[in-house]
Amino acid sequence: MSRSENDPSGSPQNQPRSSVIEISKKARQKFRARRYDEARELFRSGLETEPDNPYLLSGMGDACREAGDYDEAERCYRRLLEVDRKNLFALRGLGDVCKKLQRHQEAIRLWNQYLSLRPRDKHVMTRIADSFKALMQFDKADEMYQQIIQADPRDRFALTGMADLQHRMGNDEVAIRYYEKVLSFDENELHILTIIGKLCWRINDFEKAENFFRRALKVDPHNPYALYGLGNCYRWHRQYAKAIEIWSEILKFSNGTQALHSRMGDAWVNLGDLDEAETCYRKSLEQGYDRYAEIGLVRLYCDREDFTLAGTAFTTLMDNEDKPIPQLEELSRRFVRSGRRDVMLRYFRYLLEETSITQVVRRELKSLLEKLDAGS
Predict the structure, then answer these.
(1) What is the rounded CA–CA span in Å between residue 131 and residue 140?
(2) For the segment 298-321, what is each residue's pLDDT rounded down to a tens digit?
(3) CA distance 324 to 362
(4) C-beta separation of 163 from 199 below 8 A
(5) Please, which residues have CB within 8 angstroms of residue 161's CB and are 6 or more apart in sequence?
(6) Residue 314 to residues 181, 293, 318, Cα–Cα distance (Å)
(7) Residue 139: how many CB atoms within 10 A of its CB?
(8) What pTM was estimated for this model as a whole?
(9) Contacts of 2 (CB under 8 A, 6+ apart)
(10) Is the pLDDT of residue 150 over 60?
């Protein structure tokens, strides 16, 4: 008697089913090992035998999603929903695909269907809150995060999402409190340390900002965000030489940002080294127009009494601005105090007559011109 007559698993009819189960297991192993392409090949071979197998369809969808093949992932999840419209894996996975494709409204709808079947799943609730945030529906995002945090005050993902939400809404002090809760999970999380430092700086809590930047530098001594922030703290204390020393560390590993070069230029001006200051401003302008570098050059050339270059820099500044700048009157007064009121009058008139500028800037220039004409 043959084996197939005694053993159902060995019969020709059942062999494919046994094979599909083995394929599914091996594919899941590859998926857990993040070998997504290999997992996809195995899932695909299984689907050739059982094209509507829910385990294979969900697995294939997951593997395609992780590999970035969102079209194929969506096809698998939608086919699975045709087979089983309440399939939790398909609802959650398809929602994730929609989120990746910036189709947040559709993602929210799918995840809400999921929650109707499995309420209070905080991972999916966090996904919904994140999509509300992406849609700038901040009230709905806040409500969802609050629900999760009330149920689990130490849910890291909800705390991080809420911190970012408050950050975006400009509620800096509230954002700091949530970020500090996130930091309780890992006190050396570099990204959070630098964010808190920057937020403390924004609310003028300079000592606390300095503390967080220093903590970040203990984790990564070369972190550019922490170095830039700490340099700003020294600048606030008027310790310009120390600020330059800290900022120079950034330039050992990168070309530096425009903001960095402009800040360094300002620091050199305060130290009385106009040549170094000019070099820094020029480095900023090598990367494109920068308001603060041009303002720095106007001030610098006025201090050097080189009013032709000062006027040229001022013209460049005004040609690139579409609204009044807070420093406009202060710059004009530098020309007046230097005894070169005629230069400032000439450039204002030139800008009004020859340069294409907005009506807002034009009104501001006329106002300043009237003050200069009156001898103010």
Answers:
(1) 10
(2) 999 988 888 778 878 887 887 787
(3) 9
(4) no
(5) 126, 129, 130, 133, 141, 145
(6) 47, 11, 6
(7) 9
(8) 0.78
(9) none
(10) yes
